[in-house]
Specification:
Elements: H1 7-11, E1 28-29, H2 41-52, H3 63-73, E2 80-83, H4 85-97, E3 103-108, H5 113-120, E4 124-129, H6 138-143, E5 149-155, H7 167-176, E6 182-185, H8 189-192, E7 206-211, E8 224-228, H9 230-237, H10 247-258, H11 261-284, E9 288-289, E10 296-300, H12 304-313, E11 316-317, E12 319-320, E13 329-333, H13 337-355
Parallel strand pairs: 1-11, 3-4, 3-5, 5-6, 6-7
Antiparallel strand pairs: 2-8, 7-8, 9-10, 10-13, 12-13
Helix pairs in contact: 2-10, 3-10, 4-5, 11-13
Bound molecules: pyridoxal-5'-phosphate.
Length: 361
């Protein structure tokens, strides 16, 4: 290369995308925990009318959306910051607090974006393993806070395990380290129904991240946000550009918030019908599944790769895991009951095949 990038960038790698190069729209997408639901009519109509008016030609204006979001989150506007998906929020928070030679404390396994962004900044992710049952061990986590740790990350519910982190444990961490930022990633908040936002008035070091990608089904439009103390929000604003969030995302999210019943119905179907069905059917087959507060399940399987390949050949994508602690597991996104019933029937046939391999003739 004729020019050199900064050494931390040169040392980093591209974030690996599963099924890279595949047209995912042709598959049943249980791989990225997306919402498999059509948007409500009011969202589609608002997007069409925006496309027909100023949607493409005018720069976006976020101002009005802050008040809708403030109502939805029950948090004052000064404590909110919109981002281009919550991945963008992770990047902004890390850039604000983490530099070369620093560490970011995370659980393991967890959402790999944390380690990825840390590397681009010349920092490292210091991983504290979850227990063998994939539970969060707050004491082990706290024991690993060294001087180099500049950001504490808790993903709740954790991706890819679905682990629920107790609010008491989050508070214990906030209390133990009042001078370090504690990031609580609540990308799956609408599914878990649990948030640390009630701790905001008492802890100026709390930073919560949320997403419109998951329960609201707006992954393609890219909208996330930060909830934090206004002093932190003011600092993070410096790392944002004025038009990071596009007009279509703002309009779609505003329409959703006018009628959140659509999202609530979907969440109810996923969490109260589909997930229990998949969980109990997998357990009945002797497959180990970890308790999850998200819209996904982590399943440990003897012949994981064969099953993942078989599913893909039949048009279904799931997420085989790479982290050494779960290299025999796949994450299954949970969608509407019809899709999951068909999925289980497909899996039944494959596991049946596995139990009774065809005889050589
Ligand atoms: C825990 C967690 N945080 C953040 C994100 C990023 O989501 P988005 O950038 O779509 O808001 C994801 C996506 O899968 C996630 O699982």
């Amino acid at each position: 290369m004729a020019v050199s990038v900064l050494p931390d960038v040169a040392d980093a790698t591209e974030f690996p995308l599963p099924w890279n190069g595949k047209d995912r729209s042709r598959y049943v997408r249980l791989d990225l925990s997306e919402a498999l639901v059509t948007p409500p009519d009011n969202v589609v109509e608002a997007l069409s009318s925006l496309a027909a008016s100023t949607g493409f030609t005018s720069y976006p204006n976020e101002t009005a959306f802050y008040s809708s979001l403030s109502q939805y989150t029950a948090v004052p506007e000064r404590n909110l910051l919109l981002t281009n998906g919550s991945d963008h929020a992770i990047q902004i928070v890390m850039r604000a607090f983490v530099g070369s030679g620093d560490s970011v404390l995370t659980s393991a396994p967890t959402f790999p974006m944390y380690a990825h962004i840390a590397t681009t900044l010349g920092a490292e992710a210091k991983e504290v393993p979850l227990t063998t049952d994939m539970e969060f061990d707050v004491d082990a986590y706290l024991e690993n806070v060294s001087d180099r740790v500049r950001l504490l990350v808790i993903v709740n519910p954790n991706n890819p395990t679905g682990t629920r982190v107790q609010l008491d444990d989050i508070e214990k961490i906030l209390q133990a380290h009042p001078n370090r930022p504690v990031l609580v990633d609540e990308a799956y908040f609408e599914y878990s129904g649990e948030t640390a936002s009630g701790l905001l008035p008492d802890y100026a070091n709390l930073i919560i991240l949320r997403s419109f990608s998951k329960a609201f089904g707006l992954a393609g439009l890219r909208l996330g946000y930060v909830i934090s103390h206004s002093d932190i929000v003011s600092e993070l604003k410096k790392l944002r550009q004025p038009f990071d969030v596009n007009s279509f995302a703002l309009v779609a999210a505003a329409e959703h918030l006018k009628n959140p019943a659509h999202m609530h119905h979907y969440v109810e179907e996923v969490m109260e019908r589909s997930k229990p069905l998949v969980e109990s059917s997998l357990r009945a087959k002797g497959i180990c599944v970890f308790p999850s507060s998200g819209n996904f399940l982590l399943a440990r399987m003897k012949h994981r790769d064969r099953i993942v390949k078989g599913l893909r050949e039949q048009g279904v994508l799931v997420a085989p895991q790479r982290h050494p602690m779960i290299a025999d597991s796949m994450r299954i996104g949970i969608g509407p009951i019809k899709i999951m019933t068909d999925f289980m029937a497909m899996l039944d046939r494959m596991i049946g095949d596995e139990c009774n391999p065809p005889r050589a003739t």
